[in-house]
Amino acid sequence: MPHDRPFEVIGFHSCTRKIGLAALNGEIDLNLSDNPWDWLGKGLYFWEQNPLRSLEYGIESALHKQYNKVPIETPFVLGAIIELGNCLNLLEPESLALIQQAHSELEMVHNNLGTPLPKNDSVNTGNRRLDCAVIKHLHKSAENKPNLKYDTIRCAFVEGEPIYKTANFTSRLHIQVCVLNPNLIRGFFLPRPINTYNPYLKKDFNIEEYLKEHPQKPKES
């Protein structure tokens, strides 16, 4: 077992209540997300040890503040026990070096074809197409290398505003886990306390009621 990452992690997935309960009851399998803006490529995305951020994301999706092909209707937080397996752990230098190499290779491919590289614009649009393309290139170039066939990807995500002037800590700093091999999800659970993490378990989400209870701060000009 490598010394530089945990063997298992607890993750939290944001989804609509109907999907979450069906997965929890073993009625369906979750679909892997595969969009050009998915920064860690194709997979199932989880917030590591962060159920509140998972709930926040679900609410933001329901409010249409997060871009999703199908917005979440009733926010639901699904807990999961995830075995990392062969993990591309982007919190350690060896894995970061692989990403850097994959970017150089992808850049060379596009130069030879005379086509521009995809671009990131995460500040304004949440567009992380370059990161996604680099990860997918790494997977493709490793198709014939069993030791580079990954089950999961784990990475810190810098999000939000600095929590104080000149801080390197941001208000939404977190770790994401992207699961490529769903067989390593050892089980799902309903996180407790339920009223904290799943306040919409027994009632529908109503946008007007939520906005009335949580007035939105005006954007600074």
What descriptors fit this protein?
9 strands, alpha+beta, single chain, 29% helix, two-stranded antiparallel sheet, 221 residues, 7-stranded mixed sheet
What do you see in this structure?
With 221 residues, the chain is an alpha+beta fold. 29% of the residues lie in helices and 21% in strands. It has six helices and nine strands. The protein has helices at 17-24, 51-62, 93-113, 129-141, 194-197, 207-213, and strands at residues 8-16, 44-48, 75-83, 87-89, 120-121, 127-128, 152-157, 174-179, 185-189. Helix 3 packs across helix 4.
Give the secondary structure arrangement, pairings included:
Elements: E1 8-16, H1 17-24, E2 44-48, H2 51-62, E3 75-83, E4 87-89, H3 93-113, E5 120-121, E6 127-128, H4 129-141, E7 152-157, E8 174-179, E9 185-189, H5 194-197, H6 207-213
Parallel strand pairs: 4-7
Antiparallel strand pairs: 1-2, 1-3, 2-8, 3-9, 5-6, 7-8
Helix pairs in contact: 3-4
Mean pLDDT: 90
The beta-strand count equals 9
How much strand content do the residues show? 15-25%
Strand and helix order:
EHEHEEHEEHEEEHH
Helical content, roughly? 25-40%
Distance between the termini: 51 Å
What composes the largest sheet?
7 strands, mixed
- So how many helices? 6
Approximate shape: globular
Structural category is alpha+beta
Rg calc = 19 Å
**Which strand order spans the largest sheet, edge to edge or round the barrel?**
4-7-8-2-1-3-9
**Low-pLDDT segments, ≥5 res:** none
